[in-house]
Amino acid sequence: MTHESRIRAETLAVHADQDVEETADVAPPIHMTSTFAASSAAEFAEMATVPRHPRYYTRDGNPTHQRVEAVIAALEGGEGATVTASGMGAISTTLLSLVRAGDHVVAQRNHYMGSSKLLGELLPRFGVGVTLVDQTDVDAFREAITDRTVVVMVETPSNPTCQLTDLAAVAALARERGVTTICDNTFASPINQRPLDLGIDVVVHSGTKYLGGHHDLLAGAIVTTNERLDEIWHTSQVLGAVLGPLDAWLMLRGIRTLPIRVRQHNETGCAVANWLERQPKVAAVHYPGLPSHPQHELARRQMTGFGGTFSFQVDSGYAETERFMAGLRMTRQAVSLGGLETLAVHAAAMWNGFLSDEQVREAGVEPNMVRISLGLEAAEDIVADLEGALGAV
Ligand SMILES: *Cc1c(COP(=O)(O)O)cnc(C)c1O
Question: Distance from the CA of 300 to the center of ligand 1, in angstroms?
Answer without folding.
Answer: 24
